[in-house]
Amino acid sequence: MTRRAAVVGSPIAHSLSPAIHNAGYAAAGLSDWTYTAHECGKDTLASFLDSLGPEWAGLSVTMPLKERALALADSADDTATALGAANTLVFGEGGRVAYNTDAPGMVDALAEVGMRHASRVAILGAGGTARAALGAAASLSATSVTVYARRPEAVAELEPVAQRLGLPLTAAPWESAEGCGDADLVVSTMPKGVSDALAIDWKPDTVAFDVVYDPWPTEFARLAQAAGCRIVSGLSLLLWQAVVQFRLFTGVDAPVEAMRAALPPTTADLSADHSGLVRRWNFLSLAQPGQAWLKPNLTTVKSGEEVGGPGPGRRRTCARLAVSREP
């Protein structure tokens, strides 16, 4: 039986996800797997899910469906629950399980440029991607998170997320965003061109992460790089969140470099020696009631180690996920 997965959202025609996942299937020898794209809105997601047959392994979920996908799931991992959004649905005997791979994908993208800790984090924008940035900030042990937004009410919607993650959140007006450059990490989640207009006074050891990747480099990233900052493209986020999804869908290690090769060549300079490492993600509930966060445990484990529950061809669990970084 052909196994199927897809990305759903609107608009979806521009999505690079089919190229990334299908390249992974080919490299992993999964000749009976296929990955497609489907235009789907909030009002049609439920009926689309109901129409899927047993050949479907799961879905990648993009805007504007991430909150709706979480609501339609039978269960969810701690990260999706804490962030209030899911970008992945996995189908199995337990029904629809929702995951959020955006946050761990963001952390892995930052690890490629050597960032594994960030005390002070600045987030530009307060939309859906800002939730993933908050999850990444929790993983990086942030002690201060400032969100710069044009709409104060949007920041207010992030406050429950920050509380669940145990993060101190400060709201700042967009007009003051040019002062964000002294943070350890600055994540721009703004639409194309918006952050480019900021005259930020960068410090050289700041990491600048722009989720925009077309065109690349953005003016935001170019100016940061000119000041000596390390920069991260949205293509790196797209790659690493897909790597986590690949494992969830198929139960096998993702061929990272084959998937990277399916992307436009703008991330070639970010390629790292993965040295056969496997990153293990522990999704932990904090001791405080109502709080949860994701924390990477960088213990090295053997490639192919069993990390999930039983099931034909599947090795996954809501509590723990291993991601291969083998070339």
UniProtKB/TrEMBL annotation:
InterPro entries the UniProt entry points to: Aminoacid_DH-like_N_sf, NAD(P)-bd_dom_sf, SDH_C, Shikimate_DH-bd_N, Shikimate_DH_fam
Keywords linked to the UniProt accession: Amino-acid biosynthesis, Aromatic amino acid biosynthesis
Signal sequence annotation: none
GO biological process: aromatic amino acid family biosynthetic process; chorismate biosynthetic process; shikimate metabolic process
Entry GO MF terms: NADP binding; shikimate 3-dehydrogenase (NADP+) activity
Annotated pathway: Metabolic intermediate biosynthesis; chorismate biosynthesis; chorismate from D-erythrose 4-phosphate and phosphoenolpyruvate: step 4/7
Domain SDH C-terminal residue range list: 234-263
Record carries keyword Repeat: no
Domain Shikimate dehydrogenase substrate binding N-terminal per the UniProt entry, residue ranges: 7-89
Annotated spans, Disordered: 303-327
GO cellular component: cytosol
Protein name: Shikimate dehydrogenase substrate binding domain protein
